[in-house]
Amino acid sequence: MIERDELQLDSIFSRKSIRYFKEQEVEREKTERLLAAAMAAPTACNQREWEFVVADRKDVLAELAAASPYAGPAGRAPAAIVVVCSRGELKHPDYFQQDMAAACENILVEAESLGLGAVWLGIAPEQDRMDKVAAALGLPDDIIPFSIIPFGYPAEKREAGDRLDKSKVYCNQYGTRFF
């Protein structure tokens, strides 16, 4: 078995959800790296329908925090990236959620590699949450809010833990164990 240290993917295995942040501004260069990582994600037929809104004003972050009972971390972060979908760019509408999710995961992994903390706050497909985010950001009707990712320097210590569950892996047919 390959040891994790040999994989050179430490940021994947050390990634964890951070919900409390220091009151320290994140350098613009690091925010740009998060956005570049998001846009490095694959999309169906390269439709690249994602767009991103960076929120760093306290009033906007407070509105985002009020969008869902679980969005409190947005109000405690110095910044957040709101991942949205541009309907006008959709060539394959049935796949946009997968594309948005890949961009979100890239942001989370890159945040870890930069020494930042982040957490994925689901907004879609809950219409009331989507409406609140759209109102907070002044989104036009053709832009679909997908998620909020608050980020900053962690004010909490958390361990990632080992999530490999061998009982959930099969080989060739369901029921035939891989491990």
Key traits:
about 180 residues; NADH Oxidase; 5-stranded antiparallel beta sheet; 7 strands; alpha+beta; two-stranded antiparallel ribbon
Question: Brief description of this entry?
Answer:
The protein is an alpha+beta fold and 179 residues long. It has helices at 4-7, 10-14, 28-39, 58-65, 72-76, 96-113, 127-137; strands at residues 50-55, 79-86, 117-118, 121-122, 143-152, 170-171, 173-177. α3 runs antiparallel to α6 (96-113).
- The span between the termini is 11 Å
For this structure, what is the CATH homologous superfamily?
NADH Oxidase
Compute the number of structural domains: 1
Report strand %: 15-25%
Instruction: Estimate the helix proportion, in percent.
Output: 25-40%
The major β-sheet equals: 5 strands, antiparallel
- Helix-and-strand structural type: alpha+beta
Q: Please, could you describe this protein's structure?
A:
The protein has 179 residues and is of the alpha+beta class. The chain has one domain: NADH Oxidase (3-Layer(aba) Sandwich), CATH 3.40.109.10. Helix content is 35%, strand content 20%. It contains seven helices and seven strands; from the N terminus they run αααβααβαββαβββ. The strands form two sheets. Strands 1, 2, 3, 4 and 5 form a five-stranded antiparallel beta sheet that branches. It has a two-stranded antiparallel sheet with strand order 6-7. A hairpin with a 1-residue loop joins strand 6 and strand 7. The mean pLDDT is 92.
